[in-house]
Fold this protein.
Amino acid sequence: GEAAPFHKLAASVAAGADSGKVARELFALLIAPITIDEFYRDYHEKKPLLVKRGNPKYYDNWLKMAGVKKLVAAGLEWNSELDATSYKDGARTTLNGTGVAEEESVWDKYNTGCSVRLLRPQRRMDGMAKLLSLLEGHWGSGAGANVYLTPADHQGFAPHWDDIEAFILQTEGAKHWQVYAPRNKDEEMPRYSSGNLEQGETGKPVLEADVEAGDLLYFPRGYIHQARSAKGTHSLHVTVSYGYRNAWYDYLKIALNQALETAVREDVTLRRGLPHDFFDVMGAPFV
């Protein structure tokens, strides 16, 4: 198999192609052979999706190990651009330094079992930034990306859920994933990511599978997940995300506030004081 032509498709906009059409084609390429209609009907905010391709080069346009090495060599900032994490014996540990991460230090941590997470690499990668910018046009939402590099037979993070829609694009190696449904209604479509969960708090997985190079894994926000790299190989994947603070609540919070601001300028009734006995009937608005 060959690499899917993500960059070539994105570049067509500069040549005059319609950006909205290209954005839709990019998303179609991302989830193929699942169609866009199938995705929104059957999977979006509903359940995980695993696409097994048997083509390890499919996502080569996004990022390979050579690209990770180049970014690390450029001097990334600990905490804002780079994390080193480990999950052993039920505990997650973050082993970040301070300031600019020295290349040797990063690879020492990786070689002793840490996962290396690159935060928002699109700020240093014009090609990835262009892809995400176009996808934002399709999703009607901000899009983001993180990169996860894990040495063979290791896990970097405790079970947890996120506050975004997540697409795992496996570019090298393999990881064994376990994905769990939200445990109750209160944890569906969460506003915030969870803390680290214990193994006994996850329930049974609704999806358990090996995700290999070229494969795609999607899961909605609120779905608990954890992953461990395969015994014989490292794992490298890009997590592409969207949907952060993009719910009906977020829209209405802005829209209703703006509507009230407009109304109070135009309607004197809204500017009149409350009746003297208002709180006796309605209760106090502040505690």
In short: The helical segments are 6-11, 19-31, 36-43, 65-74, 103-111, 126-139, 248-266, 278-282. The beta strands are 49-51, 82-88, 91-94, 115-119, 143-150, 165-180, 207-212, 216-219, 224-229, 235-242. The chain has a mean pLDDT of 96.
